[in-house]
Amino acid sequence: xxxxxxxxxxxxxxxxxxxxxxxxxxxxxxxxxxxxxxxxxxxxxxxxxxxxxxxxxxxxxxxxxxxxxxxxxxxxxxxxxxxxxxxxxxxxxxxxxxxxxxxxxxxxxxxxxxxxxxxxxxxxx
Length: 125
What we know:
Layout: E1 2-7, E2 10-15, H1 20-31, H2 33-42, H3 44-47, H4 56-71, E3 73-74, E4 80-81, H5 84-94, H6 100-124
Antiparallel strand pairs: 1-2, 3-4
């Protein structure tokens, strides 16, 4: 939904994005997960809103990412400090053979986590 407003003499357009997941979240909050599962079993529109199962191939790297993330050092502001050096230390200490693509994936997961945390902090303020 687009709304126009004038700020300091300039016209600006704000976009409010709505997602289908918002409909699912609202349904689950009001009626519960079991009710959503029952409706999703018979209504294909709600079935499309169900969470996709995480592929088993991804669980392995996710578990290693979480192990690294939980053991990372924190800076003065409480932010996680995760670098390629941290990943190499984890690989050496835990004898986990991560190839270059998997190390890159861990860093992508880190960037995703940092952006999600920043969004949550913005909502708190």
